[in-house]
Each structure stands twice: as structure tokens, then as C-alpha cells.
Design a protein that fits this description.
Order of helices and strands: EEEEEEEEEEEE
Helix content: under 10%
CATH class: Mainly Beta
CATH topology: Porin
Mean pLDDT: 91
Number of helices: 0
Radius of gyration: 17 Å
Number of domains: 1
Structural class: mainly beta
CATH superfamily: monomeric porin ompg
Largest sheet: 12 strands, antiparallel, barrel
Length: 248
């Protein structure tokens, strides 16, 4: 899932599509396409270090389209070493997202969109999630809400993410994010595969550094995840994640 929120919350993030950035209108082409491919030392979904989507190295890639009107759409995928199928076969994550980035003032913008998560193979795991966001300069705040019951969550579960990026000397960037969850305690799998004891919980604080590798299009990153709590009050451990991504 787009951890970052789309990513646009990534990685994030997720990415990931959750943070809108606006260039001068006259410098924006009508249609633009971009892509990325990368590897992370561990795929940690929204700070959940207790159950990584991939505890070892994960390969991830995405394609994005944007229109000068503000419309965007894209795809992001990741290898997993976990399963969302009853037979236990390892799944692969596919995220399909679309939305609209708008401007309120030159510095203040908003995002409205959503993501459809597809796991293959899977049983009762695919679901649509809405996205609402505000961004002011390098700060963004997003809310993503599940619209259906799945084996990993209940309809109404809402992930709240505040993110801030800051340029450092020598092309380094400081990337920070604070995540929290509102949990619904009613769903088709509540009490069996989903166990909710908390209505609201701090999920993670992530502190990261990233730096482009010259003019290659590649970026290296390191994130330190400070774990919070899950919906059943499980405490999450801290973890360091390394990443390498090439954008084109």
C-alpha cells in the first residue's frame, strides 16, 4: 500500500500520491509521465514493524501520469513475502490510484483522490481507500479511509499522516512523517482476523535522510521508524530501513 502515502501518499508512499507540489503554471506541460523503480531493505507498511509486508529486500516500481489541470493517475507495485490468500501463497501488491491536485493560494493546495489495492493471489483483501489532503509549502496532512471490510482492516479505518520535508546542505533532504490511526471496531472480520481494542493510536514517527546520486536519476535514502501501537495495543519496535530508487 502506498505508505506514503500516495505516494502519492511512499514511500513515502507512498508513497506512494498524497502530497501535491505545484510548479509555475507556464512551466507545466499539459501531459507528463514519469516512472520509478527501486529496492528497500524492508517494506514496512505505515510503521507496522511487527508484521512487515516484506521482511527482506523488496522490489518496488511505479508509473505516474499528470495533467496540467491537476488530474493525476498512476500505478505502484511491490513484491511481498507475506500472503493475503487462504492457501498461504505469497502475494504481490498492486496499487491503482487517481485524483486531483488543486490550489487554494500559491502556497496552499489540496488533494482529493483514492487508491484501489489489489493483492494477487488474495482472498477478501482487495479494497478501495479514499484520500483527502492539504499541503502548505513543504508540509502536508492527509487522511486515507477504507471503504470496505477486508481481512486486514475494517471499513472506516482512517490513517492520518503529517509530513514535512526540508532541504539540507550538499543536496541532502530531511524527510519526516508522523502517522496515527482511527480504528473502526465493526467489520466482517472483527473478532477473528481483525481484533480492535483501541479507537485511536499513534502509529509511527519516521525520520529520514535522502540524497540524489549525482545526475544519475537515482536517490539513496535511510528512514528511522519509531514505532507506536497497533489496533490491538501491540507495541511496535523501532527499525531502520534503507532504500535505493531510480526515477525516469
Amino acid at each position: 500500500m502506498i505508505k506514503s502515502t500516495l505516494k502519492a501518499l511512499s514511500l513515502a508512499v507512498i508513497a506512494s500520491a498524497s502530497t501535491a507540489t505545484f510548479a509555475a503554471e507556464e512551466a507545466t506541460p499539459t501531459h507528463s509521465f514519469s516512472g520509478n523503480i527501486g529496492v528497500v531493505s524492508s517494506y514496512i507498511l505505515r510503521g507496522n514493524t511487527a508484521a512487515p509486508e516484506n521482511s527482506g529486500a523488496a522490489v518496488q516500481a511505479g508509473l505516474d501520469y499528470s495533467h496540467s489541470s491537476g488530474f493525476y493517475a498512476g500505478y505502484w507495485g511491490s513484491s511481498l513475502d507475506t500472503s493475503y490468500a487462504w492457501d498461504g501463497e505469497t502475494s504481490f501488491e498492486h496499487d491503482f490510484y487517481a485524483g486531483y491536485n488543486g490550489k487554494i493560494t500559491d502556497d496552499l493546495g489540496f488533494t482529493i483522490g483514492g487508491t484501489y489495492y489489489v493483492y494477487y493471489p488474495s482472498d477478501d483483501s482487495n479494497v478501495f481507500e479514499t484520500l483527502l489532503g492539504l499541503n502548505y509549502k513543504d508540509f502536508s496532512l492527509t487522511a486515507q479511509t477504507l471503504t470496505g471490510d477486508v481481512i486486514w482492516g475494517n471499513a472506516g479505518d482512517t490513517y492520518l499522516l503529517a509530513s514535512y520535508s526540508y532541504a539540507l546542505p550538499k543536496d541532502f533532504s530531511l524527510n519526516t512523517s508522523l502517522g496515527a490511526y482511527y480504528y473502526s471496531d465493526s467489520g466482517d472480520y472483527e473478532g477473528t482476523l481483525v481484533n480492535t481494542t483501541e479507537d485511536f493510536a499513534f502509529r509511527h514517527l519516521t525520520l529520514g535522510l535522502s540524497k540524489p546520486i549525482g545526475d544519475t536519476g537515482a536517490t539513496i535514502a535511510m528512514d528511522y521508524i519509531i514505532g507506536g501501537k497497533l489496533r490491538d495495543d501491540t507495541s511496535l519496535k523501532n527499525k531502520v530501513v534503507f532504500g535505493l530508487k531510480y526515477e525516469f
